[in-house]
Amino acid sequence: MTSMTLDPPLTNPLPPGSELVAGVDTHKNTHHVAILDLVGRPVADREFRADGRGYAQIVAFLHAHGDVVRIGVEGTGSYGAGLARALTTAGLTVIEVARQDRQARRRRGKSDPLDAHQAAVAVLAGTDTAIPKSGDGAVESMRIPLAERRSAAKARAQVMNQIHALLITAPELVRQAFRALSGQRLVNTLAKTRPGTITSADPAVVARQTLRRFAVRHLTMQAEIDLIEQQLEMLVRQVNPTLLSLSGVGPVTAATLLVAAGDNPERLGSDADDIAAVLHYRVERATARPAGSGRTRKPARLIAGLIPSAHGVIDVEMRAALDEREELIEARADAVLEAALTESTPWTNALGVAPTDRRRAATWRKAARVVAAYRDRHRVTDEAALGAPPESAAQKIDAARARAALRQATDIATAPSGTRPQVRAELQSRRL
User: Are 73 and 84 in contact (CB under 8 A)?
Assistant: First the structure.
């Protein structure tokens, strides 16, 4: 099935000195440029190569037709990134234009000249436009290792899933040897095993060999992630160390928020002189709990049982940053709890012993993770599970949530086997 399209006229002579706008449809190998006057009449359009030489030709093409006041570029974060930087360097004003939705494309047709024409029309109308990220400073340097860390974290999680999957189907002797281990302790133990030579055809030996290779891969990914996070922390401290003082914001979250803002934070609004304050305000606004009608009170969804999660309508970049922040906080809480259990630190005695039943153990661990997150967030170092009495109002709220989780963990650990303690009803009665 084909769609009919009508390309705009190639030229439309204008008086000298007339102001113009342009639109660019970007692709991997070519860019198509369309120039319009301020009432939307086509002036010229042409296709160029998507490389340094082509960028110079585009700049010359725009200057040759008059005073181009604004240029709408599609995909300034992907195929149009190099062109946007070249146009900005040439002193031209670049506007980021969103690609048309499918409904509009079905209605108007699809071709490179039409897409470039529509990008210029969007600039004229001021619809679906934004100030693009400059992508030429230290924040751009954060974006690159952030993408690298994201792929390494996915690979690490995939390896852990493969370890668990193999242990489910492995011979019974292998399963029995590692049944009581989990998390980082399981990985460290597997990496230290000596399963024998690769010439063996015994399934148990082959399973142990594969498990060891999985564990070594997991440790390699973890070492890579640790190195990336060190680099990100140095970059964040160079650009805006104030972000690291915000609650629940570490190097990775700070870098993610800065990347969402870009190297030119003025694109966020007129009051963006202090980028840390602006980002802090936007995070607080995204996680603030809206006032209800008074008839119902739906509990807020909490990250690690403590921190309100984002909700409502949020722009795409901020949503991605907040989602990654949530994943990092959850992973951090899991790591703190795992380390405390592995080292048998004194405060874990208050949690009781984890039950052997899988479902009850999962509930116990979830409650224990809230306590671990509280200790980590408020830097509690006492042997008591919750440390000294809280001082600030915010810590008092967190302490109440952690106290309820501690009671839940204790109830589960001390309940007779085969029974389910009525923890949920108790927690609902204590909910703030």
Answer: yes
Q: In 3-state terms, what secondary structure has residue 429?
A: helix
DSSP state of 418: T
> What is the distance between the alpha carbons of residues 403 and 425, in angstroms, rounded to a whole number?
15
Q: pLDDT digits over 219-239, tens only?
A: 999 999 999 999 999 998 888
Out of 96, 130, 164, a domain closes at 130
**What is residue 155's predicted lDDT score, i.e. its pLDDT?**
92
| Euclidean distance between CA atoms 21 and 218, whole angstroms | 52
Structure tokens at 335: 């790591």
The residues, any chain, with a CB within 8 Å of residue 184's CB and separated by 6 or more, are 335, 338, 339, 342
Q: What is the DSSP-derived secondary structure letter of residue 24?
A: E
332: which 2 tokens?
């951090």
Give the burial class of 81: count Cβ atoms within 10 A of its Cβ; 0-12 exposed, 13-18 middle, 19 or more buried: middle
User: Tokens standing for 214?
Assistant: 């999985």
What is the Rg, in whole angstroms, of the alpha carbon atoms belonging to the chain?
28
Q: What are phi and psi of 49, to 5 degrees?
A: -75, 150
Nearest to 431 by CA among 395, 393, 405, 392: 405
Q: Report residue 121 as tokens.
A: 């029309």
Question: DSSP 3-state assignment of 93?
Answer: coil
DSSP string, 256-311: HHHHHH-S-GGGG-TT-SSHHHHHHHHHHHHHPPPP--SS--PPPPEETTTEEPP-
Are 50 and 13 in contact by the 8 Å Cβ rule? The answer is no
Query: Hey, is 386 helix, strand or coil?
Result: coil
Structural domain includes residue 305: no
Token digits of residue 174: 């292998």
- Is this model's pTM higher than 0.85 or not? no
Q: Is 41 helix (H, G, I), strand (E, B) or coil?
A: coil
Q: Which residues of the chain have pLDDT under 70?
A: 1-17, 100-110, 128-135, 246-248, 263-300, 311-318, 416-432
Question: How far is 10 from 368, CA to CA, in rounded Å?
Answer: 68
- Domain span including residue 380: 344-432
| CATH code of residue 96 | 3.30.420.10
Give the N- to C-terminal CA distance of the chain in Å, as an integer: 59
Residues 162 and 80 occupy one common structural domain: no
Instruction: Read off the amino acid at residue 132.
Output: P
Ramachandran area for residue 135 (φ above 0: left; ψ -120 to 50: alpha; else beta): left
